[in-house]
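tool_call predict_complex ligand=FE2/S2 (inorganic) cluster
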Amino acid sequence: MSGNTEKGQFDNKVVSWVDERLPIFTMLSKEYGVFPTPKNFNYFWNFGAIAMAMLSIMILTGIFLAMNYTAHADEAFNSVERITRDVNYGWLLRYLHMNGASFFFIAVYIHIGRGLFYGSYKGPRELLWIFGVLIFLLMMGTAFMGYTLPWSQMSGWGATVITNLFSAIPIVGDSIHTLLIGGFTVDNPTLNRFFALHYLLPFVIVAVVFLHVWALHVTGSNNPLGIEPKSKKDTLPFHPYYTSKDVFGLSVFLLFYLWVVFFHPLALSHADHFKPFDSMVTPEHIVPEWYFLPFYAILKSFTADLVIPFTGIILVEAKLLGVLAMFGSIGLLFVLPWLDSSPVRSATFRPIYKICLFLLLISMLVLGYTGSQPAEGWVVVAAQITTAYYFIHFLVILPLLGKIERTKPLPKSINESVLAKKEGK
Amino acid sequence: MSKTEKIDENKRDFLYLAAAGMGVVGVGSAVWPLVDSMNPAADVLALASTEVDLSSVEIGQSIKVVWRGKPVFIRRRTKEEITEANSVEVETLRDKQSDTDRVQNPEWLIMVGVCTHLGCIPLGNKPAEVKGEYNGWFCPCHGSHYDTSGRIRKGPAPKNLEVPEYKFVTDTQVIIG
Ligand code: HEM
Ligand code: FES
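tool_result ok
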């Protein structure tokens, strides 16, 4: 998005006048009009635009919710109930926001999965990928703090458990924990700061999205073949080809989203999220929102201390192990570009990687399920096996596979491959 | 003094370092009030103590009282529970503490009812609640089992349930905190 390009020609006098002083229209036209985009995108390339739309919806509905929300431990629960019952269209705002978080995560998970399958994290797009992981982390923080705002049983106990993760840090853990919640237990000071941060972080996300898109427009998009465009024949101008495709994809996605909002607004919620927070009683079964479940399962799968064999000396406590593994599982994504040793991007040409990635997907689904269940019996074992696979996938398979895998031959160019497909070869 | 300008690199490095050091100190002291404002405020810190009347608690019963916003479990233990708590080899425990270190009067077990894993409130106070594999308390959040002395025996929690400071004023009157 640099401004040092040739000035565009605009018919409209006002547009020209502005553009000569601040070349914003030149920039828009360069980045979203004529921007050369690989012509072989499939529908997985819709989800960036969809995620951006969801972010806008979250901010818009959030601001109007905040106008009727009271960030106080005594009143928060009732103020949210009032929004749902009495405020004009308050139910709509709340259900859009509540389910919007879920659909935002759906879009982003598909978007990340796309990146994993087609190797979009590989050079020269490492920084672009890192900004993406950063957005993912910020989203998790934002959604977690948003979930505490209705001050329900799930809100309060979720906040208790998650802030307690930090108490696992040796020596300074307890001080950090107290600093985070502003007291000895999760209470009004916690709610207030979470509201302040829940309002702030989405705008930080907007800023990082800007950097993410900037980096994208420096390297250009990856594509299903994972090879760089070589000539004009390989690309199409972004407008109207991909603007229209994005609008179409977004419309289909929004249809699903609105179907849930209007017909099953509570399908993704838990009954304990509709009881006021009671700091003296923990619900029988506390679970986070579905989008955190795989990571929650990783946390729960560490049930024994790491000891030096036969001595009984504890090296790392189970609690700290679980916390490290949970944060580590996301931390690994930051260094993924340097873990994968294969020069070939797209899984289409990597037969073994494709299988490993499929196993990773299965592992995430199993982790998601086990995360929602009480930690007993086979559930623990299943979570432990899949947690092991998660780490082996990133730390062992990816570094080695690139060295031993026989990849399939890459097509000479995007254009050639597209034409070959068309001829039915 | 010579006319030719000679640059003393060491002097420059020193100046850079000193300036950077000063900057760090300045920024640090400006940021600290922001960070510290997130710590518990004076009114939150004002330590409260709670006085509890135990005269109505029968042997084998537990009560739950609130102290500094946290639940405190007070259990009047049975003979069997006390024997069970004392029969354990302390060396085999994760958090090595003998039962006598955890009580002033073996009949009364007083401890903070907050799981040392991630802060949930364990079950086991009411007769109908599960007590876990060691007949004490069970935390439903991630499955920590505590024994009849409130010591961690199984599951992810690292420490025994915390014993707060308390004092018996009379045989049935206790002040916690
Ligand atoms: C990254 C974007 C955002 C995400 C992922 C997000 C997520 C969430 C979630 C999961 C909840 C709990 C909903 C419920 O269970 O009822 C929530 C509540 C809330 N959010 Fe957001 N949010 C975002 C942006 C915003 C913004 C920009 C504001 C503006 C101030 C805002 C204001 C609120 C308010 C007032 C509530 C409490 C009312 C309610 O629970 O419906 N949010 N948010
Ligand atoms: S909080 Fe009790 S086991 Fe995790």
